[in-house]
Amino acid sequence: MTTNQTIDTATGQAAPAELSTERVRSIFSTIAKKYERFNAVSSFGAYKRWLAGMMAQAPIARDDEVLDIAGGTGDVTFAVAKAKRPARILCTDLVPEMLEVARAHRADGEGGEVPIEFAVVDAQAIPYEDESFDCITMAYGIRNMPDRARALSEMHRVLRPGGSLVCLEFSTPPNAAWRGLYHFYLKHLIPFWGGLITGDREGFVYLGRSIKAFPDQEGLAALMRDAGFVDVTWKDYTGGIAAVHVARKG
Question: I need a surface site. Which of 67, 84, 191, 228 has the fewest CB within 10 A?
Answer without folding.
Answer: 228
